[in-house]
Amino acid sequence: MKIGRRTLIGSDGTLLGVGDRIAAPEALGRISNETRRVYDLWVHAGRPDGLPSLADYPLHEVADLLPSILIVDVLEGQHDYLYRQCGALEMQVRGDNPIGKTVRQCHQGEVLDFVLESYDRVVTSGDALIDFSVDINRDPRYVGTETLLLPFSHVGVAVTQVLGYVHYVETGGNSSPSE
Asked: Most CB atoms within 10 A, among 10, 38, 41, 99?
């Protein structure tokens, strides 16, 4: 089931991303092996009485992917999310360290709307989401080709945290946009 298609244009008119968002079970045949590993661990960490907590998720089994993983806390009643953890590659492609900041502090315009909508879908449904957008980043050496969002709960059913994994492909481009 396709959830949505998006095209993001930056304030300067540049293309930031284009792609599809799909509920995870329907997208499993299209995802990279790395994204599949992150997803499969989440499925196996699940509890019969609700969602897994981050403590249930064996991050050590995807240690090689930690540079591309981020975790946000759901800020209940605020319609916002706080960056708790962000891998080194994630920070590099963003050109910023978002830890301790909210999504609203880190994004604006259409990008903010899209990021909030993606997190909101995961929080509301309690289901994983895969975004097949091709994202252009501040660091042109990397292109994000798919983003997996996984819900977690330390209270059982209500989503309290979301883990995001972005699968990056190295392009061989310059190390900074000005080069």
From this structure: 38
